[in-house]
From TrEMBL:
The lineage of its organism: Bacteria, Pseudomonadati, Pseudomonadota, Betaproteobacteria, Burkholderiales. SUPFAM superfamilies: DNA-glycosylase, Nudix. Its cofactor is [4Fe-4S] cluster. The keyword 4Fe-4S applies. CDD domains: ENDO3c, NUDIX_DNA_Glycosylase_C-MutY. GO terms for biological process: base-excision repair; mismatch repair. NCBIfam families: mutY. It catalyses: Hydrolyzes free adenine bases from 7,8-dihydro-8-oxoguanine:adenine mismatched double-stranded DNA, leaving an apurinic site. It comes from Hydrogenophaga aromaticivorans. This is Adenine DNA glycosylase. One of its GO terms (molecular function) is metal ion binding. Residues 53-208 form the HhH-GPD domain. Gene3D superfamilies: Helix-hairpin-Helix base-excision DNA repair enzymes (C-terminal), Hypothetical protein, domain 2, Nucleoside Triphosphate Pyrophosphohydrolase. InterPro entries: A/G_AdeGlyc_MutY, DNA_glycosylase, HhH-GPD_domain, HhH_base_excis_C, MIG/MutY, MutY_C, NUDIX_hydrolase-like_dom_sf. The gene is mutY. Pfam families: HhH-GPD, NUDIX_4.
Length: 365
DNA sequence: GATGCGTGGGC
DNA sequence: TGCCCAAGCAT
């Protein structure tokens, strides 16, 4: 820590920008985003689904998934009845697959223990699988107007800039401080619709004008109230010491292909362990080195082809994927392997990691 | 409190 | 290419 950190009062309450909530709500109603498919509803199921999909995921990505998922599972009962594999297939490519498992569990808890009705308070919502403090606040504020603050990446950026808050957000204690401050900035006596406009306004401001790089301070509705904006130092915030380290790894993927009776192809897929990367998804056999992959094959592997390596980065790892393609005769199956043949045309119905799906879709002849 | 967990995009 | 980030949560 540097300067005069933790012990100082967060921000003297007299210095909190009065009128912030009022200005923000007015701006949101006039200039915020209104056409997103999960807006304009107070249905907790739809809001919940969107909030979970949007965790650490960009809006443009979720736009591809949300309508499809909602069409297949229009309400919490339909989702609760689904199998885990059905849910995972629709989540495939969206990442952070524990969200999908928790989403399914949550639906089943809501149906079995809450008569199919989501709890209405933020604190009750937080007890459900996959719903943390920020998601619970978003659902409660959007659906019931509860006076509670979210704290996502957008809000962290907006509020640290507004207040010139220089605590290191890599530290949980500083995040808590910021959340307490966020609570004090809420509309004091929110009228109907105010919490929707305020909550959406925080996110809209962070997603548009108060962007990470090159913020548009000159166009900002709260410039007059914004400490860093007045100083021209907005881009210094939020303060966060970086901790992320990526390990480099090489994985060998064994792509076993076999003809079907109808002339199309099948591929050999196994279920990933239920812990770790791509947990519970279907995937080709993975090996730590080429020798290990070769050791599982019958002697005659002359026709095996090494395809071009593919780079794929995850949060904590930089993967170099080495695909090995081998065509097997129809009657042969990999010995001792716990997997199954899947028609290439049918992999849409399975949960697959994004790079594996990509490899299978563009296999050479 | 620190770490693990996907994928796509900006610069 | 590498680094950071995006409507975070669970353990």
């Amino acid at each position: 820590m540097s300067g005069t950190p933790g012990q100082e009062p967060a921000v003297a309450s007299a210095a909190l920008p009065t009128g912030f909530a009022t200005v923000l709500m007015r701006w949101q109603r006039h200039s915020g985003r209104h056409g997103l498919p999960w807006q304009g509803t107070h249905d907790p199921y739809r809001v919940w689904l969107s909030e979970v999909m949007l965790q650490q995921t960009q809006v443009s990505t979720v736009l591809d998934y949300y309508p499809r998922f909602l069409s297949r599972f229009p309400d919490v009962q339909a989702l609760a009845r689904a199998t885990p594999d059905e849910v995972m297939a629709l989540w495939s490519g969206l990442g952070y697959y524990s969200r999908a498992r928790n989403l399914h569990r949550c639906a089943q808890v809501v149906v079995a223990q809450h008569a199919g009705v989501f709890p209405s308070t933020s604190s009750e919502l937080q007890t459900l699988p996959g719903i943390g403090a920020s998601t619970a606040a978003a659902i409660a504020a959007f659906c019931h107007g509860e006076r509670v603050s979210i704290l996502d990446g957008n809000v962290r950026r907006v509020l640290t800039r507004l207040l010139a808050f220089d605590g290191d957000l890599a530290q949980a204690a500083q995040q808590r401080r910021l959340w307490e401050i966020a609570q004090t900035l809420l509309p004091e006596q929110p009228a109907a619709g105010d919490m929707v406009a305020y909550t959406q306004g925080l996110m809209d401001l962070g997603a548009t004008l108060c962007s990470r790089s090159r913020p548009s301070c000159a166009a900002c509705p709260v410039l007059a109230l914004c400490r860093s904006g007045q100083d021209g130092t907005a881009s210094r915030y939020p303060v966060k010491t970086r901790t992320l380290k990526r390990r480099h790894e090489s994985w060998w993927l064994l792509l076993l292909r076999s003809p079907s009776d109808d002339g199309t192809h099948r591929v050999w897929l196994e279920r990933r362990p239920n812990q770790g990367i791509w947990a519970g998804l279907f995937c080709t056999p993975v090996f730590a080195d080429e020798a290990a992959a070769l050791a599982t094959l019958p002697p005659n592997t002359a026709r095996m082809r090494a395809l071009s390596p593919v780079a794929h980065s995850l949060t904590h790892r930089e993967l170099r994927l080495h695909p090995l393609l081998l065509d097997l005769p129809p009657s042969v199956s990999p010995a001792g392997a716990d997997g199954r043949w899947v028609a290439l045309g049918g992999i849409d119905a399975l949960g697959l990691p994004a790079p594996v799906r990509q490899l299978l879709v563009q296999l050479p002849d």
